[in-house]
Amino acid sequence: MLDNNLNEEIRKAEQKEETKNKIIIYTTSFTLAIVFSAFILFALYTVFIKGNNVATSKIFTQEQMERLEYAASLIDKNYLYEYDTDAMIDGAISGMVKGLGNKFTYYQTEEEYQESLQSGKSDYVGIGVHLTYDEETDVIRVLGTMPNSPAEKAGVMGGDLIFQVDDLMITEDTYFEGVNNIRGEEGTDVKLRVKRGDEILEFTITRQKIQENNVTSEIIDGIGYIRIFAFDNDIYKQFRTAYDEIANQGISGLVIDLRNNPGGYVDDTLKILDMFVGQEDVLRLVDKNGKEKVFSTTDAENINIPLAVIVNQNSASASEIFASIVMDLNRGEVFGTQTYGKGVVQYVLRIKDHGSIDCVAAQYFTPSGVVIQDNGITPTHVVEVDEEYKNNTFIPRDKDAQLQGALEYIKNKK
User: Fold this and answer.
1) d(CA 34, CA 40)
2) Who has the most CB within 10 Å: 11, 159, 320, 367?
3) pTM of the full predicted structure?
4) Are 362 and 327 in a shared domain?
């Protein structure tokens, strides 16, 4: 993923050929630039108008097309400076997508699209942070840092709000640019200005090659514990390796921690679930035409050990799918707080060689028919943590009431 990962929020893009048919679910996807309406109109004019004649359109009415032509002609006659028509078209498409008013549908230029493909690689140069978009402040929220990463060593913490990257001030419009700018050449520095509570902090961090690992694991009092930061970068293989290592040492149950996990690939999510449930219909997708697709697990393994899942307000999308299936099938208990509430699926729609639109195209439903979108998942055991740790990825063990509740549940299932 981008040097976030955890999102968008945030948010993930289509892989190259090997993943072009995957369904991508993101916690945090957002529109890019706000374009002046006059420029949008002109760009639409260059697309739909030829000469002085109004072209036919399956989308716009005749009156709308005439309005576009008139506005474009005013600009053409009066605009003082030269302009780049390709840039105008990019702005027009971005403006059209923004006009949908949906935070999970956004446009990427070709350059941005190609950069987003790098987010799916398992190694990259950066500082080792999981990031998402913070809707309340319009800046970058740190969901967590990778173990032994430059960010962790510098003191960056989950919950930090990055409002400036080098000289770039972060807004809704510059979010993606800011995330990309955190990455760079190995050995170079990036300067971050961060708000942590009431404090303003500054970090200068040297970028290095990061081997992205979205899983950590350990054994706590004989109980397996696996943290999944995001469902991407071959997460099933990472999870499988981690599980086999602790299972071979002997565990009485398993806690899967999905706090601050913004989602990822649904197929890898279901592969992990397939390890612990039998043959079931577990997920239903419905598109705008009412067409349904049902996802099912198999009877391949069905590992029968006590299972607990932890979520919080930043657990989104694929994380919510995972938790809801565990609850709906009575396969385990879920601890934590109400989840984010992202129950839609985005498809990456390529515009030839000119960028892409991440478009909300379907809605998913849990096995019991629960609508997650805008609602979230209520855990079977609602457990709060101290306010100071609310958004942190790493909470001191003795302060982590959610983890303690999950461990206690497993102990009582022995």
Assistant:
1) 10
2) 11
3) 0.73
4) yes
